[in-house]
Specification:
The protein is mainly beta. The chain contains 1 helix and 13 strands, in the order H-E-E-E-E-E-E-E-E-E-E-E-E-E. Strands 2, 5, 6, 8, 9, 10 and 12 form a 7-stranded antiparallel β-sheet that branches. Strands 1, 3, 4, 7, 11 and 13 form a 6-stranded antiparallel β-sheet that branches.
Length: 187
């Protein structure tokens, strides 16, 4: 009983620090130049040629399906939405996915002036041919020494070469790092 109470209190405290973030992960708004409004395919040489992609409606949700992923490093789809975040926060990504091979999620870091200051390592997950709900926690860290601390992040997702990825209902929650407890002055 005592353990359940403590666990419940910890979960409640964590929820107090959780903030949903709209990254346009419903993919409803169309764009003539990208898979969905607010998202763009990476066009760096390692991601060329770009994959093919389609939009379809399945059970009322917009599904983006990426195929013919032949670039050396697969593909990346980057969100334009910057999420206020600092080192110690966690960006929790949940999405419905299916496919062949794997998929990954990663964060780009921005300083207080909203200038790009680096990226964090990808978190890769295997895909299955049937729909599954995938949850990935992406910890926010500061870039290497010599750069300003992170003040915001943006999300990217992608898949490696020869994979196929279908994704929908992408949701993001920022879990803020709890404030440090005040330390009483030494007597």
């Amino acid at each position: 009983m005592k353990k359940e109470l403590i666990l419940s209190m910890c979960l409640f405290a964590a929820l107090l620090h959780a903030q949903p973030c709209d990254v346009r992960g419903d993919f409803r708004e169309t764009s003539s130049t990208s898979p969905a409004r607010g998202w763009d395919l990476g066009r760096q040489p390692v991601f060329l040629p770009l994959p093919k992609y389609e939009r379809e409606i399945l059970d009322g949700k917009v599904v983006l399906t990426f195929t013919d992923i032949t670039a050396r490093d697969g593909f990346t789809c980057n969100s334009y939405v910057k999420i206020p975040a600092k080192a110690g926060d966690v960006i929790r990504v949940t999405a419905r996915v299916k496919g062949v091979g794997g998929a990954w999620f990663a964060l780009h870091l921005y300083n207080a002036k909203q200038a790009w200051i680096g990226g964090l390592p990808r978190q890769a997950r295997p895909l299955a041919p049937e729909w599954q709900t995938l949850t990935v926690d992406l910890p926010v860290a500061n870039p290497p020494k010599g750069k300003e601390p992170a003040a915001a992040v943006s999300l990217s997702f992608g898949a490696p070469r020869d994979a196929d990825l279908s994704i929908c209902n992408l949701q993001v929650v920022r879990v803020a790092k709890p404030a440090e407890p005040a330390v009483p002055p030494a007597k």
